[in-house]
Amino acid sequence: MTYAIAADGTRLHVEEAGTGSAILFVHEFAGNHDAWEPQMRYFSRRHRCITFAARGYPPSDVPQDPAAYSQAIAVTDILAVLDGLEIDRAHVVGLSMGGFATLHLGLTAPQRAHSLTVAGAGYGAEKAFEAEFRATAQEVARRFETVGAAAFAETYALAASRLPFRTKNPRGWQEMAERLARHSDAGAAHTMRGVQGGRPSLYDLEAEISGMQVPTLVVVGDEDDHCLQPGLFLKRTLPAAGLAVLPRTGHVLNLEEPELFNHLLREFIAAVESGHWPPRDRSAADAQIMRTDD
Description:
12 helices, 8 strands, 43% helix, 294 residues, globular, Rossmann fold, single chain
């Protein structure tokens, strides 16, 4: 196995395939490094593709100290993977929990990213639901500790935003649930409390986000209710953001609609690498939708 070593000594399991400009995939809470397989197989034809298991997700180490899990640490772990592979800059692609980490990477270390793809990121960001989200995160962590991942996985996998996946692709949905069932009980609980439940709302970061210049693709499913408004917020706030909304699609975008997701990502990366993804022209303001002046 290949490991990158995080700043605190935690070993992070890393897999890679292909050659070319680097794409680093960062997984969601219910997934792991294997959940990017449709993208690893497709993009490794032309790119150096990397995926890794976050701390708390075997075969990466599972630190027992709850303080070893946070949004900031998730970003430093991405940097540790890039450093361990001697990659100066990469196209960084994250889903959900990984999407938040990807965005925070752009805020804290923009020089390490050619581009950012922030997919399915938004749950807990809406201020009206923030308290509910944090309380739910605590309860989910407790269930992983008391019931265990093997028993709790199917309940978690039945969340509303994951049901479109089950409707379209029962086999794929079952594979997702089985992947979650193999999670470390302690790792899942610590991750839910420290990373998920402890991250700041996107809306509290508006000033920082508005100043970030990294080319960004925001992707949401139209049946992923709590990611739609945050997706629009990111589009309106990030200077170089584009927004793609996938029809009749829930939360697990890359597995639910792999062909469409790969197409969008391929075209985005091609545009960035050819210099054709500039920041939005801010003279194109809402008030100018129909010009009356010269």
